[in-house]
Description:
Chains A, B, C, D, E, F: Belongs to the AAA ATPase family. Chains A, B, C, D, E, F: Its cofactor is Mg(2+). Chains A, B, C, D, E, F: This is Vesicle-fusing ATPase. 6 copies of one chain form a homohexamer. Chain A has about 250 residues and is of the alpha/beta class. The first copy, chain A, has 2 domains: about 1-145, 3-Layer(aba) Sandwich (Rossmann fold); about 150-240, no CATH class. Chain A contains 13 helices and 5 strands. Chain A has a 5-stranded parallel beta sheet with strand order 2-3-4-1-5, with helices on both faces. One adenosine-5'-triphosphate binds near residues 22 and 203 of chain C.
Amino acid sequence: MLLVEQVKVSKGSPLVTCLLEGSGGSGKTAMAASIGIDSDFAFVKIVSAESMIGLSESSKCAQIVKVFEDAYKSQLSIIILDDIERLLEYVAIGPRFSNLISQTLLVLLKRLPPKGKNLLVIGTTSEVGFLESLGICEAFSVTYHVPTLTKADAKRVLQLLNVFAKDDIDSAAEALDECDLLVYASASWDDHCISHMLQTPLKKLYMLVEMAAQGARGGSSEAIYSGKQKIDINHFYDILSDVVLVSR
Amino acid sequence: MLLVEQVKVSKGSPLVTCLLEGSGGSGKTAMAASIGIDSDFAFVKIVSAESMIGLSESSKCAQIVKVFEDAYKSQLSIIILDDIERLLEYVAIGPRFSNLISQTLLVLLKRLPPKGKNLLVIGTTSEVGFLESLGICEAFSVTYHVPTLTKADAKRVLQLLNVFAKDDIDSAAEALDECDLLVYASASWDDHCISHMLQTPLKKLYMLVEMAAQGARGGSSEAIYSGKQKIDINHFYDILSDVVLVSR
Amino acid sequence: MLLVEQVKVSKGSPLVTCLLEGSGGSGKTAMAASIGIDSDFAFVKIVSAESMIGLSESSKCAQIVKVFEDAYKSQLSIIILDDIERLLEYVAIGPRFSNLISQTLLVLLKRLPPKGKNLLVIGTTSEVGFLESLGICEAFSVTYHVPTLTKADAKRVLQLLNVFAKDDIDSAAEALDECDLLVYASASWDDHCISHMLQTPLKKLYMLVEMAAQGARGGSSEAIYSGKQKIDINHFYDILSDVVLVSR
Amino acid sequence: MLLVEQVKVSKGSPLVTCLLEGSGGSGKTAMAASIGIDSDFAFVKIVSAESMIGLSESSKCAQIVKVFEDAYKSQLSIIILDDIERLLEYVAIGPRFSNLISQTLLVLLKRLPPKGKNLLVIGTTSEVGFLESLGICEAFSVTYHVPTLTKADAKRVLQLLNVFAKDDIDSAAEALDECDLLVYASASWDDHCISHMLQTPLKKLYMLVEMAAQGARGGSSEAIYSGKQKIDINHFYDILSDVVLVSR
Amino acid sequence: MLLVEQVKVSKGSPLVTCLLEGSGGSGKTAMAASIGIDSDFAFVKIVSAESMIGLSESSKCAQIVKVFEDAYKSQLSIIILDDIERLLEYVAIGPRFSNLISQTLLVLLKRLPPKGKNLLVIGTTSEVGFLESLGICEAFSVTYHVPTLTKADAKRVLQLLNVFAKDDIDSAAEALDECDLLVYASASWDDHCISHMLQTPLKKLYMLVEMAAQGARGGSSEAIYSGKQKIDINHFYDILSDVVLVSR
Amino acid sequence: MLLVEQVKVSKGSPLVTCLLEGSGGSGKTAMAASIGIDSDFAFVKIVSAESMIGLSESSKCAQIVKVFEDAYKSQLSIIILDDIERLLEYVAIGPRFSNLISQTLLVLLKRLPPKGKNLLVIGTTSEVGFLESLGICEAFSVTYHVPTLTKADAKRVLQLLNVFAKDDIDSAAEALDECDLLVYASASWDDHCISHMLQTPLKKLYMLVEMAAQGARGGSSEAIYSGKQKIDINHFYDILSDVVLVSR
Ligand SMILES: Nc1ncnc2c1ncn2[C@@H]1O[C@H](COP(=O)(O)OP(=O)(O)OP(=O)(O)O)[C@@H](O)[C@H]1O
Ligand SMILES: Nc1ncnc2c1ncn2[C@@H]1O[C@H](COP(=O)(O)OP(=O)(O)OP(=O)(O)O)[C@@H](O)[C@H]1O
Ligand SMILES: Nc1ncnc2c1ncn2[C@@H]1O[C@H](COP(=O)(O)OP(=O)(O)OP(=O)(O)O)[C@@H](O)[C@H]1O
Ligand SMILES: Nc1ncnc2c1ncn2[C@@H]1O[C@H](COP(=O)(O)OP(=O)(O)OP(=O)(O)O)[C@@H](O)[C@H]1O
Ligand SMILES: Nc1ncnc2c1ncn2[C@@H]1O[C@H](COP(=O)(O)OP(=O)(O)OP(=O)(O)O)[C@@H](O)[C@H]1O
Ligand SMILES: Nc1ncnc2c1ncn2[C@@H]1O[C@H](COP(=O)(O)OP(=O)(O)OP(=O)(O)O)[C@@H](O)[C@H]1O
Ligand SMILES: [Mg+2]
Ligand SMILES: [Mg+2]
Ligand SMILES: [Mg+2]
Ligand SMILES: [Mg+2]
Ligand SMILES: [Mg+2]
Ligand SMILES: [Mg+2]
């Protein structure tokens, strides 16, 4: 990852901040995590709402500040601010959010680490419009858009899963596409990453396939995953139409 | 129930989350409860506002988190989040709701159980539009719509109740239909479930029939339920028109 | 009262909830109270804002919950939630109201009493539109509209009061009608109830008649109530036009 | 005052509540106070914001409730709620006001005194529109409008003050009238009351006359009040035009 | 000052309240202070936000009430409420302000001092529209508008400052006028006051002249103020155009 | 810096307040800091949100007041209020901000230092519209606009960086210009300052150049900064188009 290189060799910019934005499930967290894992930095830390459930705003703030201050002690550090809208307790109605936490981020994203220390901050969000109106987008030095899966991508995933008859794959991909269900990290990733995808596919695609694999009367899933049987494409259609996708 | 099977056999998706949405009295809670009862999972828990009356937002949060953490200890668990809008203390005016609880749910619905543990979360709501604007719908992997009772369904219920003269059943069903009173879990349920319905019919339908059974001067209800007498269809009409159904 | 009968004989519906709505002074509280008095239930309790002046929201909540829990101990109970908008501290500007109390009511109105206990809940309100937007109307199983007094009803009341000359009664009723002052519980009540009305007539009608009875120079009221004198219809007109009825 | 008589002789209405509304300075407080003074009731109490400056909402509530409970102990009582909008801490921007106090008043205005005790509550306000939207107007049994001073009234006051030359009185009244300054309790009051008015005229009229009486170079006021000199009408005009009457 | 006289000789109006309103820097505070200084009243007190920075609303309230209660002890007192919008913590966005303090002022401005004590209250504000919507303007008995400086006034000031060449004064005044910079207490003040103005001219005018006096390369200011040199009019123009006057 | 001179020699204006406003990264903080450093004043202090992360509003207030009170003790002081919108915890949604801090600034910006003490206050902001609606702009005696970098400025910077081939500099500057990326302190600064700029260029320009310097496969950066190689202009274009600049 080039950003990591930049932080490593950087002389003029001890602080590199980068925002990954894209719709839900497009692979932002996976991308940020793999940057952290693939780097050989001493300090890599994910800041996520999962580990702060039920804490007060000010405790969350204190935890976030603590992570930055720990990072300032290492020569090369990465901080991942995962799902920033969730860190901010954002909800569209109102909208409501924690201004205490948003002010903290606005300041931390601009505060330079001490001399000799370099820091890469990666943020992820699926609410880029909201972050922009807070001025948080502008506080990041760069913003990358993580695109969603194309129909061609979906077909490729279905082929790899190998649970449909060859002739059904096109129709299945088409049906999924119409459901507008697929949100996915696309093309620009390297092959190593695509092979990962087979093990942990998109939550929703995976779930739909799994539901279909059980068959109309249940129990067929083992046969299908072992390759002895294929998913009945009509049963797959039924499941798709059962699942109400409440639209905006 | 297929979702239960999926959770049981699942390898890729340790967390299955499913939202049942439909109008008041359509049978969502009954459906969720029967899934829980019919499963043979070690841990089945209903989270409902009834057991948390008057608690502070943060105590409610803590209780909900506790239920999830208990579930993480069993290999196969079901958590029913009943009437999510009530858990969120939602009221349309404003609207007002607890953002603390909504943030907690948003995180819990995405947090994976520890390795080897599988969890099915079923939510119910009659305010799907509100949950959508909170982003809670999207946080569930699938959403099912629980439809309301059709006129044909109502007729079938009245036949089973056997309190009207045969010739009056059509008119009674018609009258009810015009009142737009019937909200009901429909067709796709199995027979075992329909027989249940006779013992505990829809609250409102049941109440109207019960009121009519007492007759214009009271006291006739025993005779009617024992089958010796039938409900006077005109008295039934009177009761329907008395009951003011304030419309939106 | 039929609702009372229903609760008594009920097998399927241990919880009957009924909302009386109508404009101010239409006799909702009187109606609810007389149902309570006329029943022979062991537990009859009025929950009203009068006994909770100045309490905090949470104390009010606790008191309301306490009443329900006490009721669950009797086999047959009636709870009257009088002037629900006042319990909710409702005011149209904003609007403002206690969501804590409204959530409590929403849950209590649906929570079933323990097995073998039957409960009738009667609510009264003159702000049915507000209760509807809270979802409280829908939480009641039935809603009755308590109508206002017609001109014919007013005339009947004036005749019974016997303070006007026979020829003036029509004009007096007409004048009152134009003032749009009369709000009253009407026709469908039984005779026993109408005789009550003579002792405690509508607050406003009563007050106007009383003011008129004092005469232009005061002091004549005793003569009028003792029947020796009649109210001067012109003086009655003067009083009606003096009293500013600020219109919406 | 007839209301007082009514409370005294009343049998059916132990609680009489009456709202005096009119623009600022129209004499509402004076009217309410004189009713209290002229009555021979044992308990007469004014509830006013003046004696509760800086108190918390709940302390104010407690004080108001205390006054009512003290009144319930006397057989005949009068409570004056002066400047209700000020008691409610009302301000048009927002609007803001104390809902705690407004709920307290809404309940107290309807709560009947114990048997055998009669209570007259007189409220005053110059924000009748606001009180109406709170439902407080409707909570009073009657509302009287206190009208403002007419040009003829003003002239009469100026004649009584006797500080202008006879020929100037018309012009002075005219000038005042154009300034739209005069807000005053009018005609329907008795002579006894008008004679009072000479001692304590309207604050603003009084002030203007006083300013004019000092003359262009000051010091002439004694001569004018002693009748030796008259106010120079042109100087009076100057003062009127100096005083900026910021219009709405 | 005539208001002072009025308070002194007043018999009928023990409380005189007067609001000075005008745009920022028009001399309101100076005018109010000079009234206080020139009076020979025993008690003269300025209530200003400067001495209450960071205090809570209720402490500010308590301080203001204290000043009034101290004033009630002197026979003749003046209280200056300087920059009322600042006392109220007013900000146009929202708008936000302290209702606690505004209610306190509304009551204090109408509360009469004890018998025999006379009080003059002078308020100043540059947000008269805001005060009006609070009802505070109406609570003052009179409101004076303090006008801004005319071009002629500005010229007169520049002449007195004597830092421009005679021929440049017109152009300088013109340039200032176009900048719409001058806000000033005008004409109606007496000469004694104008001579004051030379020592402490308007903050902004003073500052501009001072900046110009330093010359393009700095250091010339002493020469200019000692009269040995005049300000280069072109340099003055440069400074005027540099200073960005962000317009509404 | 002339403002510094003015404060030094000032007799009439012991308090000079000056606001620097311009878009993000235009060099406001740098300009303010260099004024402070270049002055020989005893007391120079920067008040910035960075040193107050997570503090409560009132603690921030207290710290700000403390700085002013310390300044009042020195004969010549400079206080830099950096990023005032951040001090105010401003966020555009709502908008929200600390009124406590804004009131404190409004008062401090007008409060005169004690006799004999001179104070220069420099504020910076990139939200001048917001500050204006708070009345904070008006509270400063002058406002300077810090302009953004022109295309010519950018070219000059690129020439000094010497990382592009001579023929590519025009195209690179053009490409940057189209990205609307460059916000910069412009022309009116002296040469001494421009030479500084080479060492610490604009954060964003610097970052882009650094990213490009690494080359398509990484690792070339050293060669480029040592001058052995030039940046491939096409790779520079790629980077520019990768970086999503979410527009308003
Ligand atoms: N290119 C990829 N290769 C392999 N797995 C992928 C790829 N992209 C996404 N995934 C998988 O898809 C799933 C969803 O991705 P991820 O959670 O990173 O999305 P997200 O954008 O962070 O979603 P959210 O907005 O809900 O946080 C993950 O399980 C992830 O492992
Ligand atoms: N298919 C069915 N068979 C038997 N009983 C049913 C069926 N559907 C609904 N019922 C009964 O109807 C009543 C209302 O159903 P339930 O309470 O589950 O509805 P709900 O959708 O959860 O309503 P709410 O929105 O008010 O929570 C219950 O008493 C339930 O037992
Ligand atoms: N049919 C009736 N017979 C006798 N008295 C009646 C009747 N209807 C109303 N009243 C009397 O009229 C008065 C007003 O009725 P009540 O207080 O019950 O009205 P309400 O609808 O509850 O008014 P609110 O909305 O103000 O609470 C009461 O004194 C009641 O006794
Ligand atoms: N008819 C009257 N006779 C004698 N004095 C009167 C009369 N009407 C008003 N006044 C005097 O005018 C003054 C203003 O009247 P008052 O304070 O009662 O008005 P208000 O309507 O209560 O004003 P506010 O709305 O400001 O409270 C008082 O000093 C009162 O004594
Ligand atoms: N007529 C005058 N003669 C002498 N000095 C004056 C005159 N008018 C104003 N000044 C001076 O102008 C300056 C600004 O006046 P002042 O502070 O009283 O204005 P203000 O209206 O109170 O402003 P703000 O709205 O900012 O409070 C003061 O220094 C004051 O001394
Ligand atoms: N004329 C200049 N000479 C040298 N360096 C400059 C110049 N102008 C700006 N810089 C540099 O550009 C960078 C951005 O400037 P600075 O932080 O002062 O901008 P700012 O306007 O305060 O931005 P923000 O609005 O984000 O606070 C700094 O690193 C600063 O050193
Ligand atoms: Mg993610
Ligand atoms: Mg349910
Ligand atoms: Mg009632
Ligand atoms: Mg009054
Ligand atoms: Mg001032
Ligand atoms: Mg800056």
